[in-house]
Specification:
- This protein has 6 helices and 14 strands.
- The chain is α+β, with helices and mostly antiparallel strands.
- The longest helix has 22 residues, at 5-26.
């Protein structure tokens, strides 16, 4: 399908609106509950979820919605292979720590591939937006979106590696050893993928658990900026099988894969 700039702007406006609701809660005391998988849940997750679902239903493009906060209500993609994929508050641990590194993620999936993605970090007032045929962009505050692109790693310089701030990975040190000289930049939420998209980092290896909604929107940003998000066997990360919400381990690359097939 042809995605319009108007649709991308509408989804971005919705992410910003949800971000404002999150920030209202962020600025005061809030309760923290625990989900069945032991991950934290705050009232901000629920507030953002409700706002985003209501906004997506009102858009001219109608598609089922798979949100981290409502997996039971999702029956699968529509007859066009499309669905909205939402993480209302990615980086709840960062939200609780109040370090600002949390995001609102909204993606449109078509035949297993993210074709539109918006990532908004309300505490940092930074956003990323991308769509097939339109490219990838970053904006700060109320500034105009600026096109972003990945770049190949510069030979003779340390690899710029971005890693999870709250989720390590036991296999990561061995993998990084294969890279040689590198500098590790810790970051929370889907912002890790966006750093590769904007050429602030060369690579993001993820050897720990993530779910479809953690990566869909930011993967679109990376891919439209010229990068790739691939499983360790080199196959693209796919969103076709919604019965399995956990992603395999993956690499986010600005240029060529330095590891080959792992």
């Amino acid at each position: 399908m042809l995605i319009t700039q108007e649709l991308l702007n509408q989804v971005d406006a919705l992410a910003r609106k949800a971000g404002a609701a999150i920030m209202e809660i962020y600025g005061r005391e809030f309760t923290v509950e625990q989900k069945e998988d032991k991950s934290p849940l705050t009232e901000a997750d629920a507030a953002a979820h409700n706002m985003i679902v209501q906004g997506l239903v009102e858009l001219p493009l109608k598609a089922p919605i798979l949100s981290e906060e409502d997996t039971a209500g999702f029956a699968g993609a529509d007859e066009h292979g499309r669905y909205w994929l939402v993480d209302p508050l990615d980086g709840t641990k960062e939200f609780i720590k109040r370090n600002g590194e949390f995001t609102v993620n909204i993606a449109l999936i078509e035949h297993g591939k993210p074709v539109l993605g918006v990532v908004y970090a309300p505490a940092l007032n930074v956003g990323y937006m991308a769509a097939e045929g339109l490219g990838a962009f970053k904006y700060e505050g109320n500034g105009a979106p600026v096109a972003i692109n990945v770049a190949e790693h510069q030979a003779g310089t340390p690899w710029r590696v971005v890693g999870s701030r709250s989720h390590g990975g036991g296999e990561l040190p061995a993998l990084l050893e294969k890279l040689g000289e590198h500098e590790l930049v810790p970051m929370g939420s889907s912002l890790k993928l966006c750093l590769v998209a904007e050429n602030t980092a060369d690579i993001y290896p993820r050897l720990g658990p993530t779910s479809l909604w953690d990566t869909g929107a930011a993967q679109c940003v990376v891919e439209q900026a010229g990068g790739t998000v691939v499983q360790l066997n080199g196959e693209p990360l796919s969103y076709a099988n919604t019965r399995e919400v956990l992603n395999p381990h993956f690499l986010v690359l600005g240029g060529k894969n330095p590891f080959g097939e792992l």
